Amino acid sequence: MNRFSFKRSALAVNVALVVSGMSLSGVAAAQQNLDEAPIEEVTVVGVAASQTRNLDQKRFNVGVSDTITAEDIGKLPDTTIADTLQRVPGVQIRRSAGEGSTINVRGMPQVTALMNGEQFLSAGSITTVQPDFTDIPASLISGITVHKAPTASLLAGGVSGTLDLKTIRPFDLDSGVTLAGNAELAQGSESKGDDGKVSAFAGFNGDDYGLVVTATYDQKTMANYRNGTILNGMELIGEDIRDQRDFNGDGDNNDTFLSQRFYGVMDRGTERDRFGLSASFQANITDSLEFIADVFYTEMEDADRKQGMMIDSARGNNWAYSDQFDERLAGPLGGSIYTVNRAELQVRRVSSYAESLTNDRDSTNANLQLNYEGEGPWSGSLRYLHGDAGRSHTENVAHGYLTSGAQHGLLRNDGSGAEPANPRGYGPGDALVQFDRTGDYISLQFEPGFGSDINQYNLVSTYSENNFQEDATLDVLRADAKYSFSSSDIASIDFGLRQGKRDVTRQTHILVAPFTTGDYSADVMWKDSGASLGDTNGDGENSVAGGDMTLGSTNYYSDMPQGWVNEVSDFGPGSVPGTFYFINPEVMDDNIGFQNAIYPGNKKLVQPSRSYQVEEQTQTAYVQMNLEGDIAGLSYVGNLGAQYVKTELDILQNIIGGDRPCSLCTASNKIGEETISRSYDDFLPAANFALDITEDLILRAGYAKTLTNLDIDDLAGGLSVGRSRAGDVLGDQLGVSPDLLVAINGTQNGNPQLEPWRSDNYNLSLEWYFDDSSLLSVGAFYMDIESFIEQGTITKGLPDADGVIRRELPVTTDINGEGGSIEGLEFAYQQAFDSLPGIWGGLGASFNFTYAPSDSSNVDVYGDELPIQDNSEKSGNAVLWYDDYGWQFRIAANYRSDRLDRLADAMGEGVVPIWTDSTVYVDLSASYDINDYVSVYVQGSNITDEFENQYAQWDDYVITQNVYESRWSVGVRGRF
């Protein structure tokens, strides 16, 4: 028997314990006495034990993978699942309100997540394969494996990686009753609120049957601020327009100024109430038959509330005055394009902006499973899974004015004559604002006293859009089997069949209220007191200045009900000096109630271009040979196989007409619908090989073809058809009346004909385990990605106004564009210094670094190639820990280099890239074991108050800052 088979046999006895991260069996017998020698079971918890378990899992997996296990029941190393995953080489995270929310593996977000080896539904990401990890309480998860080299038996779904979340089951526990729980208080450096978390665990292992239940609840309010661009939008302003100002003083009018349309500071607070419950029952029905039943439930209510000052030029002239304009590149007028980093801005509009985004989401996943393992060569399992998830989302905006509106000609008229939309506001001249992006924080400075008078504020515009209800169900039936050989290089063969069905429904709506001005009546979404429904005075011209009436009324902040207005003078680091007033975003959480309080009679109006139904069915079959043997006296293990996946889609898509059922709104009329049915097949070979060069040195190699199905939003939506009068010539060609409105083009949200993400992945690594808790490894990887999604044009038959399709016409939508590649290196080092004398023996450290350059078909303004979006070329982690004498301590730093966030406007030889600057986040945790049962702890996240800068093309041209707070928690944990 070789070394691999010996250690894997020992591992099989204890695999559930290692996977769950709760305990680890010591292998006390020699190889030849393994079968008859008793295995001592030792419960191990803490930082050092978790690190050792992680290495065990990595070492004995055939393919390239990394595992993180809980340090104790309900205690992952970091506060969230995503924050924990960022410690894995090649994993990068994206943050929501400072918390880790979603991840990339080796630069790609096309990562699927499984639970106990199978698909599940997450309420915050119903349309995607990767969950929003803010949905899932970390206390319910006992371990996570990141598979970077898939096998044929692993459910396909991740182009760059697959996550497998593990929950604890009864047989993972010691015999008898196990109780655990914790309670903590938390506070942010800026939010200052007293947040809390409680969790409880109860488990019973009766050897032949058992039950575990875990429940957790936490509430937190997190402060995060935004400086710079509040709403995205660029504009190029030439010296040849309107005032023809020679802004850089070079004596001509052929230069162009590049600016963001909006600047400001935003105070954002995110409140999350999160509840989770998991339960598992496990029983040995016979000596060879095991039954498992799991339930996993999550529920979260969250509100993202924003209030801030916003300035803009209201699409006017160049508003920047400075002695130092920076020349960037050749411009469209024959001169150059310039930007400015410090200037006096002559601001035409100053807004008091408030917004509330709420989510109410829940999901339930249930698993029924029969496992068979007899004395013969056959073993297997039969599983049925059902998932149900729903999400209700609202958006509500209150746009107040501090300026009068006269600066950019926004007037109101209730029948008594035209006046500025905010009659009491600042004006009629421009407001002067000192703007500076050269310091640590983007700063805006108004004139002394500006904004301090509440009587100058008026709610000019309010609306509620992008509200939606999403619902999904998931049903899976699968059967897996294994046949083991007693003596062969083929140790066993795995094979299985799977049938999956997912239904997703999304209905998007806006809120509209009835308005009547003169002879005009309409339902309106943008309830703007400076907007007019039409020529109300009948003079043939639609002009408020000329006497036409406008919507709504004045809604001065000083007249608002008690509690509806916030006085704010603190916008976090880099705060704007002064005192300002805002509609309280918390009042806006009830979007219908708020809108009705301002303008009664609101109703929901479906937005068919953003509504759809999708049914996805998958049939999967796989076969995999598991190999084990010797080559030239060196032990090896491996697997070789393939997975076949057939995907069938039925997409109900709305057809949108040219008319609107409302005024000043984003909704359109639905004139029909079509069901698009399509299917595609994928054959996904996979091979992994691990060679035991020495007892502690392992060489791994792997190849796999990978697949990730598209997000439902990429596939489904509405089809808008543009039409015009046929006329004589086209009418004759088509054989229709010249007055018929015929289709001329289309715009489609979601493209049902898109191909999924596909890639060919290669892995090679060398791992040296120089003691039980130490590792030095280096790995190389290459991903050849078939296609990226981009905006383009397809041809499609479009119906004319009479419903008949007569021509194939161009339709703008998402298409499969050119592919790209990511190649890189991963380096990892981990060591426990337990050989050091005395208290120093509790020290340990780990370090990893990933270098992953990438390429795409996009180029920047100079024609230089751009990388894949959201991929940091360099990333790494450094962790120092201590675990001895009842004390545990860990400090961890995570680094990401610059990454491409998004593509903005076309300019120069390409597009303006928006980059996120490099970041280093530092987290800390410490605990002390009062006795064998109770410990106290403190935990800090982002303890250095790191924040994220975004810059457009040039690293000194910072346009946005996301400023996150540090957070600290203290708590007590018990385990009995």
Tell me the helix content: under 10%
- What low-confidence regions span 5 or more consecutive residues with pLDDT below 50? 1-43
Distance between the termini: 40 Å
Gyration radius over CA: 31 Å
Count of distinct strands: 55
Overall geometry comes to: globular
Describe what is shown at a glance:
The chain is mainly beta and 976 residues long. It contains seven helices and 55 strands.
Question: What would your notes on this structure say?
Answer:
It is a single chain. The chain is mainly beta and 976 residues long. The strands form eight sheets. The protein has a 22-stranded antiparallel beta barrel. A hairpin with a 4-residue loop joins strand 20 and strand 21. The N terminus is likely disordered.
Secondary structure elements and their pairing?
Layout: H1 3-13, H2 15-20, E1 24-25, E2 41-42, H3 47-60, E3 65-69, H4 81-85, E4 91-96, E5 99-105, E6 111-115, E7 143-147, E8 161-166, E9 176-188, E10 195-205, E11 209-228, E12 234-238, E13 256-260, E14 262-284, E15 289-312, E16 320-321, E17 325-330, E18 336-340, E19 342-347, E20 349-373, E21 378-401, E22 411-412, E23 419-420, E24 431-436, E25 443-446, E26 458-463, E27 467-484, E28 490-517, E29 520-524, E30 527-528, E31 565-568, E32 580-583, H5 591-598, E33 603-606, E34 612-631, E35 634-656, E36 670-692, E37 697-708, H6 712-715, E38 718-725, H7 727-734, E39 741-748, E40 757-771, E41 774-785, E42 789-799, E43 805-816, E44 820-832, E45 843-851, E46 854-855, E47 874-884, E48 887-896, E49 899-907, E50 910-916, E51 919-929, E52 934-941, E53 947-952, E54 958-964, E55 967-975
Parallel strand pairs: 6-8, 13-18, 35-38, 39-43
Antiparallel strand pairs: 1-2, 3-7, 4-5, 7-8, 9-10, 9-55, 10-11, 11-14, 11-54, 12-13, 14-15, 15-20, 16-19, 17-18, 19-24, 20-21, 21-26, 21-27, 22-23, 24-25, 26-30, 27-28, 28-29, 28-33, 28-34, 31-32, 34-35, 35-36, 36-37, 37-40, 38-39, 40-41, 41-44, 42-43, 44-45, 44-46, 45-47, 47-48, 48-51, 49-50, ...
